[in-house]
Amino acid sequence: MIALLAACGSAPVGPGFYRVERGDTVYKIARSNRQSVQSIVRWNNLSNPDAIEVGQVLRVEPPPGTATARTSVAPRTGVTTPRLIPDASDSAAVSTPTNAPAISLVWPTSGQVVRTFDGRNSKGIDIANAAGTPIVAAAPGTVVYAGNGLRGYGNLLIIKHSGGYLTAYAHNQTLFVKEGQTVEQGQKIADMGNSDNDRVMLHFELRYQGRSIDPARQLPAR
Fold first, then answer.
1. Is 81 a member of any domain?
2. What's this model's pTM, rounded to 2 decimal places?
3. Does residue 91 fall inside a structural domain?
């Protein structure tokens, strides 16, 4: 297959494709679309994955007639992977499930929201601030993962809440809680950082029974 190229500009691309932006890498694009780097390289016949260009259009979903299940990025050997990313596509991301119990969240950190949820390329929101900015638990719960075994998320915390909810906190500089620990809403759990990322920020996700939810719809106005 010939790599799909497009003239520079902001023309929309079709479903299953992505236009390369400044700062993108194949690894970053694969992570954002819940695919493996190998799949992106194969679908686009990339002879040099490090040589993608701004404006280039890449296929980020399986071509017609191939398996549609997405492949989660593999963790390093010997590290237990949290089931934050489902094996199957969760493209049916929702803003608020109609059958979901209520959950009361507080903002996990201060700063500017630099990327919003779209349920496809962004499964959460990104909040930027200075390194070391405190990160707090958005709701009470139990830490079910604390580590850096999921590539692309850096130092990651995942907290399980009542009602089938999970929150995830990625790219932290320092983690202050451990797996199995119970945390209170508003309790400091980490410091903001840029682990496995190109800028200092918190990537924050909210999931209900494995499906992405727009956390901004559950957070109080500020």
1. no
2. 0.62
3. no
